[in-house]
């Protein structure tokens, strides 16, 4: 296993764990599993708070890094890196 493949593999594992954690931290919007366990009771009519927006941005950034690492690994395996 080459060094770039090892680096992108570790990056993929770390971002996978972080992405799962970020998704679980989001507030339920209703109509899903969050309602089943009582998460739908605390809906607010106001917009998203600053923390929610920051969490959304971080989730998108981690998702982009996750996707890029999958593409990089695919290209490295195809080239034989």
Descriptive terms for the model:
81 residues, mainly alpha, 70% helix, Protein-export membrane protein SecG, protein transport, SecG
Describe the structure.
The protein has 81 residues and is mostly helical. The protein is 70% helix and 0% strand. The protein is built from 3 helices and no strands. Helix 1 (3-25) runs antiparallel to helix 3. The mean pLDDT is 82. Belongs to the SecG family.
Compile the SSE list and pairings.
Layout (H helix, E strand, L loop, with lengths): L2 H23 L7 H4 L13 H30 L2
Helix pairs in contact: 1-3
Could you tell me how far the N terminus lies from the C terminus, measured between alpha carbons in angstroms? 8 Å
List segments where confidence is low: pLDDT < 50 over at least 5 consecutive residues: none
Instruction: Please write the string of helix (H) and strand (E) elements.
Output: HHH
Question: What is the percentage of strand-forming residues?
Answer: under 5%
The description of the largest β-sheet is: none
Number of helices: 3
Query: What's the Cα radius of gyration?
Result: 17 Å
Fraction of helical residues: over 70%
Work out the number of β strands: 0
The shape, in one word, is: elongated
Average pLDDT, rounded to a whole number, is 82
- What class would the helix/strand composition place it in? mainly alpha
In short, what is this structure?
This protein has 81 residues and is an all-alpha fold. The protein has helices at 3-25, 33-36, 50-79.
